[in-house]
Design a protein that fits this description.
The termini are far apart. The chain has a domain of about 130 residues: Jelly Rolls. Helices cover about 0% and strands about 35% of the residues. The protein has one helix and 27 strands. It has a seven-stranded mixed beta sheet with strand order 4-17-16-8-13-10-11, with no helix packed on it. Strands 5-24-23-26-21-20-15 form a seven-stranded antiparallel beta sheet, with no helix packed on it.
Length: about 400
């Protein structure tokens, strides 16, 4: 859950007359989640958002599950991937999927998106592994840089503009459920509590309304829905917004602003939790921190059977103390049903160490994940046997 925010001009009361300088009405749009029961925002357009100029053919935009892969510890050797495609949309490479989420890499060559994009299938969490730029949306402009999580509510219309001097590399998690701050970090009114590893000051909403390309004759928008991209043409900018207010909007949170929770003995992964998608998955941030300070502590994690979830780790910076042979930019998947733990020798090696400089993003899903055909090229066939 985010906090109340407003940007631009809005009327004193919602659902009331709000007139343009020529005397005509502005056009109010309610963007709501969970029907009318979730968070929402009210947006005010110059032109009705329903004015469609044309509809072009839809194209497939999905994935294919790798048949017969089975239940295995998995290492995806994606560390050396330079690009996954040309445009931001064509560059999305789904690697692991289930009924609730899609985990993809997106390393585009092009420095600007060709089309406006709306994901009508789910929320998105975009982790900026490398890069810098601005996400233009109907809610305004969201600057981003390396280490940022960009949380994008479903049906947000956006167009990315990338810094000309940077390479763009993104981890994208699409979710059927809303992506939220963690429930146990909030009080009954939604404010983040004192024990939370971050606070509202660390959540960054849009900084200004977008004036991107306001004079074009038409606007091309790709809408993701049901494993297809649906191509709509509008005669007016989707960013013709004079103001909005509410709780639903895109925002960023930097992994570098996550304050780690440590203890005398080894702390379990929930202390690293950053976001939740209720009933679907959790997201955790592993960041530099002091190790345990019991005189007989073992900083490396213990062996674990995660019987109710699959665990994905994306390694972003530093060396992960419990793993050998895993490079930055690679993934591991430890599925529920078989125990996982530190590689041989890493437990003894961790004893006496005072801290770690690692960064990693973890996604724990509550439904089994499936490897895609697109991930096949990156499989490390020896990884399941690397604990010998």
């Amino acid at each position: 859950m985010t906090y109340y925010y407003r940007l631009g001009e809005i009327p004193p009361k919602r659902h009331t007359q709000f007139r343009q300088p020529d005397g005509s009405l502005y056009h109010e749009e309610l963007v709501s989640s969970l029907g009318f029961s979730g968070i929402y925002s009210n947006i005010y357009h110059k032109v009705p958002p329903t004015k469609v100029k044309g509809i072009k053919a839809s194209i497939p935009y999905g994935y294919k599950i790798l048949e017969g892969y089975g239940l295995k510890m998995t290492h995806l050797k994606t560390a050396d991937v330079e690009f996954t495609g040309d445009d931001y949309l064509s560059a999305r490479l789904p690697l692991m999927v289930n009924s609730q989420c899609i985990i993809s890499l997106c390393y585009p060559k092009q420095l600007q998106m060709e089309d406006y994009f709306k994901n009508a299938d789910g929320d998105e969490m975009i982790y900026v592994y490398e890069g810098k730029g601005e996400m233009h949306t109907q809610f305004g402009v969201v600057p981003f840089q390396k280490g940022d999580y960009i949380v994008v509510p479903r049906t947000t219309i956006y167009k990315m503009e990338f810094d000309q001097d940077s390479t763009q590399k993104f981890l994208i998690v699409e979710s059927k459920m809303p992506i939220e701050t963690v429930g146990r970090y909030r009080n009954e009114l939604g404010q983040l509590l004192e024990h939370s590893p971050y606070c509202e000051r660390d959540l960054h909403p849009p900084v200004r309304l977008s004036d991107l390309d306001m004079t074009a004759s038409e606007y091309s928008m790709k809408i993701k829905k049901g494993a297809e991209l649906h191509h709509y043409i509008y005669g007016n900018s989707p960013f013709d917004i004079v103001g909005w207010d509410g709780f639903l909007y895109p925002y960023t949170f930097s992994i570098y602003d996550f304050e780690p929770i440590t203890g005398r003995l080894h702390q379990p992964p929930p202390v690293h939790q950053t976001f939740q998608a209720r009933g679907a998955f959790v997201v955790c941030s592993f960041v530099p921190r002091l190790f345990d300070y019991h005189p007989l502590s073992i900083p490396a994690p213990y062996n674990h059977s995660n019987i109710d979830s699959d665990e994905v780790l994306f390694y972003t910076e530093g060396n992960f103390m419990s793993r050998k042979g895993i490079a930055q930019g690679a993934f591991t998947l430890h599925p529920g049903g078989i125990p996982h733990g530190p590689h041989p020798g890493t437990m003894e090696k961790s004893i006496g160490k005072k801290g770690t400089e690692e960064y990693a993003v973890m996604v724990d899903t509550f439904a089994p994940l499936y490897i895609t055909e697109q991930a096949k090229a990156f499989l490390d066939e020896e990884y399941p046997f690397s604990w010998q």
